[in-house]
Structure formats: structure tokens, C-alpha cells
Amino acid sequence: MTKPIVEYKDVHKSFGETEVLKGIDLDIFPAEKIAIIGPSGSGKTTIIRMLMTLEEPTAGDIIVDGRNLWKMKKHGKMVEADEKHLRSIRGDIGMVFQHFNLFPHMTILENCMTAPINVKGENKKEVEQRSIEMLERVGLGDKIHNFPSQLSGGQKQRVAMARALVMRPKIMLFDEVTSALDPELVGEVLEVIRDIAKNDDMAMVLVTHEMDFALDIADKVLFLDDGVIAEEGTASDVIEHSENPRVQEFLSRFRS
Amino acid sequence: MNYWSFERFFEAWPYILKGLHITVGVTISAFLFAAVFGLVWAILRRVENKQLNFIITWVMEFIRSTPPLVQLFFIYYAWPVIPVVGVTLSPFVSAVVGLGLHFSTYIGEIYRSGIESVGKGQWEAATALNFSTLDKWRKIILPQAFPPTIPMLGNYFIIMFKEVPLASTIGVTGILHMANSFGSTHFNLIEALTIVGIIFLALSYPAAVLIKKLEVKLNTRFDKNADIKPIE
What we know:
Chain B: Keywords: Amino-acid transport, Cell membrane, Membrane, Transmembrane, Transmembrane helix, Transport. The complex is a heterodimer of chains A (256) and B (232). Chain A is an alpha/beta fold and 256 residues long. Chain A contains nine helices and twelve strands. Chain A has two domains: 6-92 and 170-252, P-loop containing nucleotide triphosphate hydrolases (Rossmann fold, 3-Layer(aba) Sandwich); 105-168, no CATH class. Chain A is globular, with a radius of gyration of 19 Å. The longest helix of chain B has 30 residues, at 190-219. Chain A binds chain B through residues 52-54, 83, 87, 90-91, 93-95, 97, 99, 101-105, 107, 114-115, 118-119, 143, 145-152, 155, 163-164, 167, 182, and chain B through 119, 121-122, 124-125, 127-133, 135, 139-140, 143-144, 222-226, 228-232.
């Protein structure tokens, strides 16, 4: 059996007095597509933000490719990870945000090129080639010299995906990537994610409210409720056949 | 007695203009000093250390709340007398250090507002792309934080220019000093001081207009190459 690329081991997270995550255990396998669903405020986003090193867990371990993400050995003792340690692991992980977070002072081509060049020290010509191909793949080949302010929300989000993909991560995280979009722009973004999910072999974790979409692409669906994984299984297990009343109540809001 | 003479007026011009390079020189040097030192304040204030933050905040407050003239006098007359650390500075250098230090506290605040205007999402995106701390600043944060501060920096440049005559009190031979000396040898200050006013107006006003233009240009800076308009 293959080994998981990411393991969450009894991970807790509190913000001040509020405990948002109350013990998360989760394995993510290479190439696996996972959808996390659940009511807002249940801690879905926090799960992936901790993997992206944007939030530090209060307790527990996150193991990435056999290495403890938030802790490191120093003089024979386990201590809090420093920036150098985080950087050495973080390169395998990419993330797409709800609010795109494109760099407004760069063209969309520069948005894609800056990290491979400045972070990985890759060859500029090669990165440019790859970035253009990636932007063509997300349907923006004719806009590479535009600035983000000249694009629609759906286009911006597609650039954000191209920017993350150019880094060739082993794990891609999607944080409610369609929530900030006008309804008519959601489809084009989901289409790109579907394309990535079907054709790329990286692991993907999606925090989403798009149930039909989760059903379509996810190998595994997690239902998060009140800081714990309340239900876990294949998409059809959780979304279509769950007997958990909390799941049914939650899903009923999406079916009219 | 004839209190205004055009003859004296025209005679005074070349004499006073001999001080112009000093006035402009102090302005530019002091501004550069303030621009660099302001960055030091801005960085020190971002260090997450309560004691240091407390000290820095009060040092800045102290420098800002004392009159620049007092600071100039202190640097020029009092500092050299202090044992061990005391150094005698020329009038020009004293003026640059004094005005530069005073205005660096304001410029530090401008930088801070510029840095804080860059949203949290930009930091997070840079982290997600695994930028080093230094590159986050160089490639992502400062290129966005700096341009919006340029108009404010420009305004402080003009304000500082108008404070430079203070330096004549410690013997910096700028245009006000020259006007005074012309006036005292001709027993009439009206023409000389009028000329000083005209020079300040002639330099400050175009500079202000230029800054205004720059501001408009900066506000539309990401829309250049706009061959395709936003599609919504």
C-alpha cells in the first residue's frame, strides 16, 4: 500500500479561547482528491491553512512526506519549526485563495513567473515558456500581458491556479475558490479544476460549497462539523447515502 | 525715506541667489537623510518586541514634539560640549542632521502606512509561493507599498524646503542668510526679503503641481498597456 503524503495526527487549533479544531486525524495519499464540506465556522479552511503554514496548530502533528511540518529537531529536542524548516517543506504545497491574491503590480505572466525564478532559481526562458503554456491551459493565453485589475473575477482565479501550478506542487489546496465569484463565473473556474483533477497526478484538497462538483471529482469527502471530522467516505457515501442527521441537515440547504 | 527701491531690488538678486545652492543642498541632503532614517524607524517599529517598541515609539514622539529650531541649536551648540560622544559639526552638516532627523519620524510613519496598506492576502500568497522573507519584502510588499507614498513624501519635501531657513540661525549661508546680510549693509530689508519670498514661491509651487501630476499617474499605474478592458 502506498504511504500517505500528508498525515494529520490529532491536530488541534484554537484562536484565543475558541477551539476551532478539536482533534483532526487525516491521511492524504499522493494523487488523491479530497473535498472538505461542512457549515461555515466549522474549521474547514483552518485545516488547509495549517498545511500551507499560514496558521500554526495549537497541538498535534502534521507530517509531510515523512517530515514533521511544525516541529524540528534541535540539539536532540523537538522544538518549534523555524522559517528555514518551513521553507524546506512548503515548496511541495500550493494554494489557491478565495480572494485570488494576485500581485497587482505584475502582469499575469509575471505573476506566474516570479516564484519559479525568484524562489526556485529556475531558468527564465524555460519558466516563461511553461507559464505561457499554463495560462493557455486555463484559457488566458491572449491576456498574458494584462494586469490583474483588467480581468474578471473568474479570470483572476484562473490566473491564480496557473500561478500555483507553475510551481509544480505535489499537493494543491483550494480554499473556497468560487465563493467570491459572481454565479455566472463559477463554471469556468470549476472547469479548470476539473481539468487539473482529471489530468494531473498531484494530491488536491478542496474546501468547497459546490456539492455536485465534489461528488464529481472527489475520491474522498470529509464532513466537518464543530471542529471534528463527523463523516468521512467516498463522495457518494457522504453526499448521497449518509445517515448522519447533521450531514443531512447541512445538505438539505443545498437542495431546493 | 524711500522704503522701496527697484535699484536695490535688482541689485539684491545676484547676491541672494549665491545662497540658493546651499538652501537647495540642505533640502536635498536632509531629505535623503530623512528618507533613509525613516526606513530605519519603520523597520524598528515592526520588530515584535514590546520593550523596543515602547522605546522607539517614545523616541519618535520626543523628536516630533520638540521644535526643529531647538534641535538645531542642540546639535550645533550643545552636542559638541558633551564629553565622549560630543562632535563638532559644521553648520551645513548640523542642519542636515537636525532637519533630517526631525522629518525622518514623519517619513517613518508614511512608510508604515504604505506597508500597512498592502493586504494580508499578499503576504499569504507570497508565503504560499515559498518566497524568502527578504524576497517577500523586495518583490511583493515594497513595490506595492512605496508608490502610494510618493505624493506624501513629495509634500514633506516641500514642507522641509520651507523649514530650511531655520538653519540660517546657526550660520548656514542659504538665501535667507544672504538676504539678511544684504539688508543690513543697505539698511533696508524689504527688497531682500521680498526676493526670498519670490524664490520660495517659484520653487515650491511648481514642485507641488508636479507632485499632483505624479499622484494622478500613480493612481492609474496598473492600467497601462490596457488594450483589453475589464470584462464583467
